[in-house]
Description:
Distance between the termini: 72 Å
Number of strands: 15
Largest sheet: 5 strands, antiparallel
Amino acid sequence: IYAMPVVVxxxxxxxLVNTFIILPNQLxxxxxAASGGxxxxxxRFFAGISRPYERLLGRVLARPYRAVSASVLLLSGSIxxxxxxxxxxxxxxxxxxxxxxxxxxxxxTTFEGTEEYLGYIEQAVREIPPEELRYYSARLGxxxxxxxxxxxxxxxxxxxxxxxxxxxxxxxxxxxxxMRETRAKVxxxxxxxxxxxxxxxxxxxxxxDKPIEIRVHGANEGRRLAFVELLLAELARFPGVSDIDSDAxxxxxxxxxxxxxxxxxxxGLTVNDVSRTLRIAxxxxxxxxxxxxNEDIAVRVGFPEWHRQDASAVLKLPVRNSGGxxxxxxxxxxxxxxxxxxxxxxxxxxxTTTVTADAEGxxxxxxxxxxxxxxxxxxxxxxxxxxxxxxxxTEQSIVSLIVAFTGGLVAIYLVLMLLFRSFTQPLIVMMxxxxxxxxxxxxxxxxxxxxxxxGMVGVIGxxxxxxxxxxxxxEFINKTMPAEVxxxxxxxxxxxxxxxxxxxxxxxxxxxxxxxxPTAYGRGGAYxxxxxxxxxxxxxxxxxxxxALLLVPCFYLVDLRMRMLLRGVRGRWLEKDLDTPAAG
Length: 584
């Protein structure tokens, strides 16, 4: 997202050049050009709202502590409301433009069997209306799209389909709805067939295989897989959790040659001798070549086809030892059937099995599941759990946002402190930041949207802008406030200065908000990934107006009274020290 702050900074620098160079020339050429007629509509409008505003502000400043307390209670209530009723979904599904379909057949299924099932999936995908479907790609023998051009491996029971839709602004339905419809068609067409299907929406934001991703670590495979089964069963108990799966799938059945190494040593053979003989028997070896029509044709010798299908023939296969004697493999080894390891996965160098699932509110579900099973981990020594997917991305995003937010606030405070030459007045200006959160919470709550990553980016990005109205108010009050003012003149002086700032504050807020709201509400085109950011922008700006017009003068009055009180106390201490006779 680095492009967003870069564009904003460049725009504000250009605005600064316009303000100091271009705008003064424009104003100079227009001075005196206006007619000397009556008041304009704008002047009559602001004159009409200025008087009610002065009366309202006078009443608020008469009880500043009540106004501040009420605002704090309102902010606390809105934060509590957000914690309980506004969901946290940093990377919502809105605006997605692709989804993936993964198929896992029973271990040992041939390419032909998997391809038959894959055909039903492709048929359902092709039924997506052409105005919604951009293209799709299918891969047989794999479960991801890392390299569609790579040759298929031994995972004959796996298949993968990636469906890419047209851009969100060019279609009328969300990707999630299209995915659910496609899934229903596939399930109807494949009723009675054996195979596991999982659908995954390609959400915007940092990539995660699934919203729920729990990693189970442990070197002991038995204990690790036993805990995985417990975890799968616990996830299945939660309503709304779907596509529950793990990467601990069994491989194909294969034969394992179990060698008795003591007997092998007695025969004068090595493991290398045995492996070389088996490789020649099954892969063959070039024994000679024939020349036909000036072309060399290699003659390869190996087991005949019918012999390769007989597993017992391996035990009868003789191996020549160093003494020239032929020793049958069955004299020092035997065959057993085992499940092949399709892959060995590690995380931080430890064998790991990953459990994945799809659900709304993934962080809460993961916390509940791990909370229930935490006490049972001691039954599985050497096994521990970590998180990935949406939970991991959310935690990392929250940390990065907190760091950015804190750094922005500190930088703003330092600049304002140099401007005002005060430690307290920058805090008055920055009160617009926390109290403006009320508008953001209202925006997400009223529009039924979760608090997302882009929404929080909007909050952080606007931190430096929402203080502008408060900055104008405090700066102008400082300039108009008399050097020596009595306590009785404080409120009238603040009200008079605030009334003169009413017009620029209202105009600034309205022009900025009206520029953002059409895009935020999708007028002329929508892009859901940035809608939350624009909503937080616009509503925070609208909320910052009453803060600048009412709360900032209250905080200013409280700060001024506190400083006058401290000066009075310090003056009394000084008089007391002067009246005290010097010792000695």
